[in-house]
Amino acid sequence: MLGTDCGPNSIWQFYAWIHAFLPGFNEIYTVGLTTICSEIWLTRNRATFEKKWINTPFEIVFTACAFIKYSADQQKPGMIRATKKGAEMLKENASQMLLLCGPPMSETSEQVDEGDK
Fold it and tell me: What pLDDT, on the 0 to 100 scale, is given for residue 49?
């Protein structure tokens, strides 16, 4: 999970884990957690009731980041910038992981590469 094998199993482990990987954003940890949980719930509802499936779990993270940035203006004045920065950091990390975990090359593109050699 997010480049580590020590994922959280409880709310308290989440806070310890998130503090270790994103220090300095203590005030917005709950905002991020509730937004991710809410987006997972909404995605589940879309899949269950509307039969709209996601292509990758990263879609949940990207949608949550967009919502966090959109709603950042509702934070305390001193937290607006930190909230937007945290959402941007999460989006960048997810983008890097998506590149690492992306779909394997299709067989047709592998055959083209072999034909060129």
Answer: 95
In angstroms, the CA 34 to CA 79 distance is: 17
- Name the nearest CA neighbour of 83 among 95, 92, 70, 96: 70
Q: In which residue are the tokens 């959109």 written?
A: 70
**Single-letter amino acid code for the residue at 30:** T
**Tell me, what's the pLDDT at 1?**
44
Q: What's the pLDDT at 42? A: 94
Q: What is the DSSP string of 3-14?
A: T-S---SSHHHH
Residue 74 tokens, joined: 């509702």
CA angle 31, 9, 7 (to 5 degrees): 80
